[in-house]
Design a protein that fits this description.
82 residues; mainly alpha; elongated
């Protein structure tokens, strides 16, 4: 009886591995679908440029509110200089 239960457990684990791995087909090509964060390089950076920047979010990353606050501060400083 123990041998039969052991064989059933091994079969279930094997089936789970086969389902998880797939049918031997390669995975599709990975690509980065996130938009690039870009600022214009054909003129000096302005406060409006910094205000329009939006970074993508990630599971482990920076706090969006802190990044936005820093960008607002830098934008205000750029506006004061110009």
């Amino acid at each position: 009886m123990t041998v039969v239960l052991g064989a059933i457990v091994i079969a279930i684990i094997g089936l789970a591995v086969v389902i998880t791995v797939g049918r031997g087909e390669p995975m599709s090509e990975a690509y980065d679908d996130r938009p690039d964060v870009r600022v214009r390089a054909d003129r000096p950076l302005t406060g409006a440029d910094l205000r329009s920047i939006r970074f993508t979010t990630a599971l482990r990353g920076y706090d969006a509110a802190e990044v936005d606050a820093l960008l607002d501060l830098l934008a205000a400083q750029l506006d004061d200089q110009g």
